[in-house]
Amino acid sequence: MVSFGGGLVSGDHIDLDVDVGSDTRLLMLTQGSTKVYRERRGGDVPARVAQAPGPTEISQQYIRFIVRENATLILLPAPVTCFARSRYAQTQRFDLRSSTSSSLVLLDWFTSGRLVVDGPRDSTDMQRIPEMWHFYLYHSRNEVRIDGQVLVRDRQHLAQELPEVLQRDTKTDLARRCDPYTCYGLLVLV
Fold first, then answer.
1. Which residues have a Cβ under 8 Å from the Cβ of 165 and sit 6 or more positions away?
2. What is the DSSP-derived secondary structure letter of residue 77?
3. Cα angle: 136, vertex 165, 51; to 5 degrees
4. CA of 134: how far to CAs of 63, 159, 166, in Å?
5. What is the pLDDT of residues 131-150, one digit of tens each?
């Protein structure tokens, strides 16, 4: 899967249907991490699309997968990376049509944000200057059904308010709650 421009800006909405036909195998990858760029505010966009001051829309992805009889879907994307002051929501639904012959390998994961490395490349004591947990919203929902019955339903919802001035070393509410982790993932094998 390739997104135009290498990422999602506020208000982007991807709606995709994937049908893995009978007797087929599909491996889906991404070109790199799904970058979720910071929100745009009313004053930062052209007048023809400007909105009232305040946050703009959420960047969203909605993907539906059908895996038919004797078929396999392997979904191994790079992680979602939410930049500072971004909002992101995704829903992925997997419908396996046969309990005996439909297969799924699903990896869904996200990082705490961008990590910027400061210092010479050959230095052994590189100082990491993170932009960790500086996003407003990350919401993910995955649902796996076999023959119409829900087998897996996973939901992640991380939301927070941010101060007007956000320094790279600011320890946000999410950073305090999720520390020391910088990556979360879900692996489903059916």
1. none
2. P
3. 60
4. 26, 10, 8
5. 889 999 999 999 999 999 99
Short-list 128, 147, 125, CA closest to 67: 147
Q: How far apart are the first and last CA of the chain?
A: 22
Segment among 19-33, 79-93, 154-168, 175-189 with least mean pLDDT = 154-168
Strands 59-67, 80-82: pairing kind: unpaired
Cβ-count burial of 67 within 10 angstroms (0-12 exposed, 13-18 middle, 19+ buried)? buried
Backbone angles phi, psi at 10, to 5 degrees: -55, 130
Tokens of 136: 């407003």
pTM confidence score: 0.83
What would the pLDDT profile of 100-127 be if each residue is shown by its tens digit?
999 999 999 999 998 765 555 555 544 5
Query: Which residues does residue 189 pair with via DSSP β-bridges, in sequence order?
Result: 105
Report how far apart, in Å, the C-alpha atoms of 89 and of each of 115, 141, 190 are: 21, 8, 24
Looking at residue 41, its amino acid is: R
Q: What are phi and psi of 155, to 5 degrees?
A: -140, 130
What was the pLDDT predicted at 169?
A: 74
Tell me, what amino acid is at 175? A
pLDDT given at position 40: 76
Give the C-alpha separation, 175 to 182, whole Å. 9
